[in-house]
Write a structure and sequence with these properties.
Shape: globular
Distance between the termini: 28 Å
Protein name: SDR family oxidoreductase
Number of strands: 7
Radius of gyration: 17 Å
CATH class: Alpha Beta
Keywords: Oxidoreductase
Family: Belongs to the short-chain dehydrogenases/reductases (SDR) family.
Number of helices: 9
CATH superfamily: NAD(P)-binding Rossmann-like Domain
Strand order of the largest sheet: 3-2-1-4-5-6-7
Number of domains: 1
Length: 254
Amino acid sequence: MDLQLRGKNVLVTGAGQGLGRAIGLAFAGEGANVAFHYNSSADGAEEGAKEAAALGVKAIAVGANLRDGESVTRAVAEVADQLGSIDVLVNNAAATQSKPFLETTEEDWAPQIGVTVAGTLRVTQAVVRHMAGNGGGSIVSLMGDSGRVGESRLLVTATTRATTVGLTKSLAKELARHQIRANAVSIALVRTQSLDAHTGNADEAKMKKILAAYPLRRLGTPADITPTILLLASPLSSWTTGQIVSVNGGYTMP
């Protein structure tokens, strides 16, 4: 199926490694031009851009600290300058931490709020200003199921992730007049480089217990997630907005 993404310009945040980088490459595979955003994973973003360019599309790596407004504004302007008007924004960047809530401090909370909440607002606003003057676009935001159903040891992460629901639905209602759609994909555990941070370096027995919570009895892979993101970003989903789509192996069922 042709998803009609060829020639579209896409910005993926947190694309220097893991799922974000896989998302960027998936768009490149559909013929889209891709900006791989990074904060600290410059080498990974540069490598991702090289892989994407090898597929015959335009691709760049662009650095920005999402906790700094000026940095975000410069990065979005750079993407628009090098690729053209931004058609798709994928909000993938987030900060997470597994820790009992009573042991957390405000210093623990700050990066999660700064990146996942305020950072997402910053980059979304900057991109929307471009989209609104260029005929519209699509925003797809990633979130974890912890933000929908809660999770022990992930209270702060779940709180920040839950804001994605309100953001997505509000964007969909307010920006429809600009032909901008907004949807979100809610995921459970996905096998990437950061998996150990979420599972606590689980041994075989603990992993078996984790998998028991999944009706499909396996964790996800980036290849399980990217098709839904591509479809929501595609013009084929032009009548879909304000939706939270679960891709999670059945871990939660809304």
